[in-house]
Amino acid sequence: MSTSAQIGVTGLAVMGRNLARNFARNGYAVAVHNRTVAKTNALVEEFGHEGTFVAAETAKEFVAALERPRRLVIMVKAGEPTDAVIQEFAPLLEPGDMIIDGGNAHFADTRRRERALREQGIHFVGTGVSGGEEGALNGPSIMPGGSVESYASLGPMLEKISAKAADGSPCVTHVGPDGAGHFVKMVHNGIEYADMQLIGEAYQLLRDVAGYSPAQIADVFRTWNTGRLDSYLIEITAEVLSHEDAATGKPFVDVVQDRAEQKGTGRWTVQIALDLGVPVSGIAEAVFARSLSGHAGLREASRGLAGPTAQRLDESEAAAFADRVEQALYASKIVSYTQGFHEITAGSDEYDWNIDLGSVASIWRGGCIIRAAFLDRIRAAYDTRPDLPSLLSDATFAQEIAAAQDDWREVLVAATRQGVPMPGFSAALAYYDALRAERLPAALTQGQRDFFGAHTYRRTDREGSFHTLWGGDRSEVEA
Prior knowledge:
Shape: globular
Strand content: 5-15%
Distance between the termini: 72 Å
């Protein structure tokens, strides 16, 4: 087999197949390989007209087909399957070659793999790819980590196949060393969880409080999508809500079980945030909401619990309420992104990645699931002030939250009175209020900890750590 392919893809399920086609459509010769040879042959037979594919039946044939430095993209399940593929291919590679993991790997695994392969002179590029199967084919948002040298070789290819923002910029950047790319993709997915939960809560408010039908709510979302909430998720929400089930004629959302599943990246976002000491309460509530939805027995046993009697609004009240829900949704969305970018900052500091937050916002403007118009403003905020402590510290976002806060609070009051659960909206507002509070009850918490465990405390009027002798004369000693 001749050395003719500029890049190779192994693992030809939907994402891998579409990514290979994307490379081929953009003029690259692509080596393709799958453990099941039939998938390789099917890809070439069905899509061979789209570009140059080099089919390989074995790992040796696959590697032999790649020009140096070899660029080998792995598109298999995260975890042990990825390790197995690396163990199969790494002995066949040479120093300077690179393995690109385009799956949803845990960033800690990526750091481990990068470290091990670096000792062999092989570049390991943990790469977040967002946009689903359509994005993989037509242009995803791409978040590669790894060495600067690997990006110099691989970057131009990724830039060519990536989504393009409205200004034509490719939605890809070198995020940082080792696991930085997969870390940022993890947080991206955490924000996605929060975004979807907030949209779901807005839907429930419009249905259970305003009394709108799914079709009417679809129209509301279409209107919102023409303004500051313009985003892919708002757009598809309108499509889902307007869809009728062919078998029953009922709204589609009424024939789907209200049990939301998850693949794990949202959970990882929360787990790692706990490790880093970063509050991502909005993302956490979104993860817990999905978990709660799946506990069918618990929910069934609790349906008889007391609650308020729902009071539907009249037409004019409902329209005014919908406007307030838009304000609450937008404000809560800003908080979700604030928490996500805080976690990226903390991860970057912890692992010395030096992640450019403006660049991250820039590459999320197209291709990915959370693409939204206001990411342009997030990018501008971080470009103007790379040391911005929080999105809420940006003057424009702060002004918008100030303008929205009264409606935000009123929406939550209405939801509470009607007994409509709003974990995402509530967590976002609580986070906002906690940040702006001059004093929190943490002083009392620390006093309690000192009382039962001699954990010490710090004073407001002088330096040092102190402990009160609670069981004796309650005198204070310096710890």
